[in-house]
Specification:
Elements lengths: L10 E5 L6 H11 L3 E3 L2 E3 L13 E3 L2 H9 L3 E7 L2 E6 L3 H6 L3 E5 L2 H8 L7 E7 L3 H11 L4 H15 L7 E4 L3 H16 L8 H18 L1
Parallel strand pairs: 1-7, 1-8, 2-7, 3-4, 8-9
Antiparallel strand pairs: 3-6, 5-6
Helix pairs in contact: 1-7
The structure holds guanosine-5'-monophosphate.
Guanosine-5'-monophosphate binds next to strand 5, strand 6 and helix 4.
Length: 219
């Protein structure tokens, strides 16, 4: 009998202004759901304390990043806060064919490129809003991983990032970490049930019809 559970994975684009909690949400979801994986980006920004090569990012030199652009290695890339960030194309096709959902923690420019990529039909985009600008500022301050001038730029950039909220399929306000996390997982589960994403559904329907035929022949 045909396996009813086989569905193609999704490319889940998660965007928000810096400090709205999207990286913590993505990390927590990936640690609890083995079918959901994180797309590790390459970046030219220096590592923060505690960040590990290949886990948060691949930290590369600008010259190497530019070579990767020339090679067509990225599904998307953008300059954010003066540094380059890009999502490697490698492995995406294979992962989604195995039913894995891939989370992309990218800014609005990356989100737009992924939506317009050859993977468009498998993309679901989610924008995370902070509950208030004060909360966003406090989060950036408490993180205190960037120096003051970078933090000031990030507050200015937050307004421009938020202006892209209406380009996303779903918009969630991060006023309760576990609830928002649950909502993201629910969105992924529901989107995978869309008829056109259940690639093996025609076979399953054929199996049901075979069963009908067998039963009909018995009566
Ligand atoms: P951070 O330096 O705080 O880790 O990330 C800064 C911004 O860059 C965040 O908005 C983050 O979502 C975005 N970003 C991280 N990786 C990528 C990527 O691969 N592509 C794009 N376009 N943006 C990224």
């Amino acid at each position: 009998m045909h396996d009813k559970k086989v569905t193609q994975g999704l490319l889940v684009v998660l965007s928000s202004p810096s400090g709205a909690g999207k990286t913590s949400l993505a990390t927590s979801i990936v640690s609890e759901h083995e079918e959901i994986v994180f797309s590790v980006s390459a970046t030219t920004r220096p590592p923060r304390i505690g960040e590990i090569e290949g886990r948060e990012y691949y930290f590369v030199k600008t010259v190497d990043f530019k070579a990767m652009i020339q090679n067509g290695d990225f599904i998307e890339y953008a300059e954010v806060f003066g540094n380059f960030y890009g999502s490697p194309k490698k492995d995406i096709q294979e992962l989604i064919e195995c039913g894995k959902d891939v989370i992309f923690d990218v800014d609005w420019q990356g989100g737009a490129q992924i939506r317009n990529s050859s993977f468009a039909s498998s993309v679901v985009s989610i924008f995370i809003l902070p509950p208030s600008i004060r909360a966003l500022e406090e989060r950036l301050l408490s993180r205190a991983q960037d120096d003051k001038s970078i933090m000031d730029i990030r507050m200015l950039e937050a307004r421009s990032e938020i202006s892209h909220w209406a380009e996303y399929d779903y918009v969630l306000i991060n006023d309760n970490f576990s609830r928002v996390k649950g909502s993201i997982v629910k969105i992924i589960e529901t989107e995978k049930m869309r008829r056109q994403r259940q690639l093996t559904l025609p076979n399953f329907i054929a199996d049901l019809n075979d069963e009908f035929d067998v039963i009909k022949n018995k009566i």
